[in-house]
């Protein structure tokens, strides 16, 4: 009887210790499942994070109790003495399926617990950044920002210098005639690349 306070195996086993463990474990597993069901009924979308975290920790312990019972039952089955091969195989398959379900539940709860912990860390970091902004910049922050500004200004000046060096300004007004310079070409001293005819009668 699944609800009895003194459960007993429906088969004989040569492993007396696993028999005792399975029978006592069945009582513990039943209590753990009942408590888990009760807790699940109390949780909802409005539950606080602390309540959820506490429930996860409790449920992990209860699932471990159930897994211990299933392990004992499996050990007892391995030493079963009065079951035919078909029945034994069916019992073992049932235990294996139950263990797989419990392991999946444990994995899911661990994942949920890790996710909550990660979110808490992110929140803590964001709060620290917010507090820092509220408190004002530190001397180190100011120095780092000044260095970034100086680097940016130097980069701008370098670009401006290259632009200035790429410009040719004639001292007179007129019309450009031969234009032998090519895009990207570097001018050499003493080599004429551009000629200009003045539009002034005095030039």
Helix/sheet category: mainly alpha
Give Rg in angstroms. Answer: 41 Å
Number of helices: 4
Order of helices and strands: HHHHEE
Distance between the termini: 120 Å
Please state the overall shape, judged from the principal axes of the Cα atoms: elongated
Estimate what percentage of residues fall within beta strands. 5-15%
Q: Please state the average pLDDT score.
A: 78
Question: How many strands appear in the DSSP assignment?
Answer: 2
Describe, in plain words, how this protein is organized in 3D:
By secondary structure, the chain is mostly helical. It is 67% helix and 5% strand. It is built from four helices and two strands. The protein has helices spanning 16-42, 49-78, 85-135, 139-165, and strands at residues 174-179, 194-198. The protein has a two-stranded antiparallel sheet with strand order 1-2. Helix 1 packs antiparallel against helix 2 and helix 2 (49-78) runs antiparallel to helix 3 (85-135). It is elongated. The mean pLDDT is 78.
Put the structure in a nutshell:
With 203 residues, this protein is mainly alpha-helical. It is 67% helix and 5% strand.
Set down the secondary structure blueprint.
Blueprint lengths: L15 H27 L6 H30 L6 H51 L3 H27 L8 E6 L14 E5 L5
Antiparallel strand pairs: 1-2
Features:
single chain, 203 residues, mainly alpha, two-stranded antiparallel sheet
């Amino acid at each position: 009887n699944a609800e009895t306070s003194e459960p007993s195996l429906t088969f004989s086993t040569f492993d007396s210790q696993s028999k005792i463990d399975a029978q006592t474990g069945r009582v513990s597993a039943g209590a753990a499942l009942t408590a888990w069901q009760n807790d699940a009924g109390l949780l909802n979308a409005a539950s606080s994070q602390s309540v959820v975290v506490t429930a996860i920790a409790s449920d992990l312990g209860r699932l471990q109790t159930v897994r211990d019972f299933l392990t004992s039952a499996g050990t007892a089955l391995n030493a079963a003495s009065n079951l035919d091969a078909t029945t034994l195989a069916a019992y073992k398959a049932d235990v294996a399926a139950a263990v797989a379900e419990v392991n999946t539940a444990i994995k899911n709860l661990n994942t949920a617990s890790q996710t909550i912990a990660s979110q808490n860390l992110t929140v803590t970091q964001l709060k620290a950044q917010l507090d820092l902004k509220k408190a004002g910049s530190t001397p180190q922050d100011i120095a780092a920002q000044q260095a970034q500004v100086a680097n940016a200004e130097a980069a701008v000046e370098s670009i401006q210098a290259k632009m200035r060096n790429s410009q040719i300004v004639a001292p007179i007004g007129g019309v450009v005639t031969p234009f032998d310079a090519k895009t990207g070409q570097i001018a050499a001293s003493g080599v004429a690349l551009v000629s200009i005819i003045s539009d002034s009668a005095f030039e």
